[in-house]
Amino acid sequence: MSAQQSEANGMAQRSGRPLATWILMLSAVVITLLLPDWKGTGALLPAGFMVVPILLGLVGARLAHRAGRLGWAIASGVLGLVLVPGLIQSITLISGP
């Protein structure tokens, strides 16, 4: 695989890690942490934002799979699918029903 192909697939040349997948996974975590109303102002993000971490995880999984990194593809896909339900469960357990 040439350097241009690996960059197009979102892989860093030196380490062989899917850089684009890492960025998308980090973005999914950041957006998930922005979903709750931490300050208690009552200004919530639109409900459509709950889908964004899932989409970012799945896009990251697709990029990692195209780069031949099956483990990173699985990790990104699972992370994207688990973030929002995990946040809901955590908030419920911490603050009560």
Automatic annotation (TrEMBL):
Keyword set for this entry?
A: Membrane, Transmembrane, Transmembrane helix
Q: Which residues cross the membrane?
A: 19-36, 42-63, 70-94
Q: What is this protein called?
A: Uncharacterized protein
